[in-house]
Amino acid sequence: MQSKSPHFLLVIVAVCLLLLTACGESATPAAKPATSPTVGSEEARRLPGTAITTPQSTPALPPTGTPLPPAHVVILDPGHGADDWGTFHSDSQGQPDILEKNIVLKIAQKIQAQLDPTAFKVILTRTADASPNFPPQDFNGDGKIDQVDDLQARINIANENKGELFLSLHINSSELGNDVGGLETWYAGDRPFAADNKRFAELIQQNNLDSLAAAGYKAQNRRVDDDANLDSSGEDIFVLGPDVGEHRGATNMPGVLTELLFLTNDHEAELLNDEKVQDKLAGGMAEAIKEYFAGS
Ligand SMILES: [Zn+2]
Known about the structure:
Blueprint: H1 13-22, H2 28-31, E1 72-78, E2 88-90, E3 96-99, H3 100-113, E4 120-124, H4 147-160, E5 165-172, E6 183-187, H5 194-214, E7 221-226, E8 255-262, H6 266-272, H7 275-294
Parallel strand pairs: 1-4, 1-5, 5-8, 6-7
Antiparallel strand pairs: 2-3, 6-8
């Protein structure tokens, strides 16, 4: 779940820094979330079968070829990371065994893998178990580096990469444990592109329902809803909302936040941890992205 406003610090940033430094090269992917995760390079976007040549030699496209349309830029935002686990499932001993931050990253990577790089340039806001806010910056200038700055970093990555569509991936939790399950997808109804937000939210929700049905699970269709209805505050989810309050810039593109089942539900946690179910969910969301652009 993504809190609307920061409730707790992204703690031990200094420790993170020390760890990242100590890890040497392994810190590099996390250090450049805005640039390293791109696919759809110029090579990948050439016409099939076309040799990759230097600019001085033959043209990249054959004389009779039609230039490819530009790839759509899609931002995938796996929630949480590093010290921020998101929600989690606990084993029979009460020990956390499945963490939201890990499952949503795997599913984001699977969505990326299922989108044709000639048609979609997919950017992940993080590609490792790390905050996208690296090196850490105090975007809102409140003297501390916390969850708001982590969320602002995700927005900034989306805007800097000129994203056309934003999909934030989360998993839900409930104190009621196994009694609660199902799917929710949220959109902001107070943005200039609210109609596109809603259309994309409905596509994501339907495809997630269909993917789980194909995996043999009839998930509860909890709701597709305006994020103003998430709680009594009426505030937007931070990564979807307008440039108000603690924002230092909002996303410039339509987007949604989807909650993929409940990790506090044993059966749904087992499904989420199943590679085949992850593949199905990813395939369905890749399909939703294609359907969104086909209909716009
Ligand atoms: Zn979450």
